[in-house]
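Encode chain A's predicted structure.
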Amino acid sequence: MTQTLTPRRPQPDGSAIDAMQALLADDLAAVESLLVARAASPVAMIPDMSGYIVSAGGKRLRPMVTLAAAHAAGGANTATHALATAVEYIHTATLLHDDVVDDSDLRRGKRAAKHLWGNSGSILVGDFLFARAFTLMVETGSLDILDILSHASTVIAEGEVRQLAAQGRLDLPTEDYLAIIEAKTAALFEAAARAGALSGGGESLADPLAAYGKNLGLAFQIVDDALDYGGTTAVIGKAVGDDFREGKLTMPVIIARRRGSEEEKAFWDRAMNVETQQESDLARAIHLIRATGAAEATVAEAKAYASLAKQTLNALPASAYRDMLDTLADFCVSRVS
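Encoded structure for chain A:
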């Protein structure tokens, strides 16, 4: 299977996300070209698989954060484009690895790459994309940026391992859940924003932009976890209920179990064990999450982090890019409404 991959240029259609992509259209076009060029390899499986998942798109939120942070801090440049590409490669590599670990069927609305190329291929091509990301980081010529993203890559791996270790732990405290998603999701948003600021020459704005990225990432992941119990595949890009079927303790489940009766707690204890879970359990889980108010409480938590992200932007000078970052925080939580 040979995947012909051509750069994807965003086309605005009036929606919030497309308006943001339009503001960054030239920068994103440069990133798309790099995503294609740097996935080239004489080993056919590498461009085939990377082309398959990269061309599936996604919203390019992390590169957008990188680019907008750079513009808000002074201006994007070719180093910023390389950095934004590296960030997307890191994200894509983690998706390839996650689909093997989680045994996922869908990714970005398409069959997971592991179904076409196998588990080993997905892991190895993910490793290739990590390596490409580090090459791009070196090309920025900044040891600070290399340090930021290499540290984030370590934290992401630790977060995934922590989540694996917590699987089946039914008394998982909310603080531990937040620590997991801060590591596995928010760390890359934080690093993208901080490194973007540095590439734009705005060292004094790196801290507030990093805080923005961290809180945005937390809001984004909490919403994703809520959508697993009430969203659509088109929105989250994977099968609804995947987290439940994998026995992952996320905020909706933690809250619903805490608020439930003893009989409901017993249900959660059985249903979140993949060995005793039944086909009909997902429907009841969704019902209990709604009936206990856990869905609303989860969304409220996400909105609180989005609000924190927006507040940090007050440290930035007024610009269309600051406004875009503000809108992006609203977009992340609007996906659940």
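Residues 288 and 311 are 34 Å apart (CA to CA).
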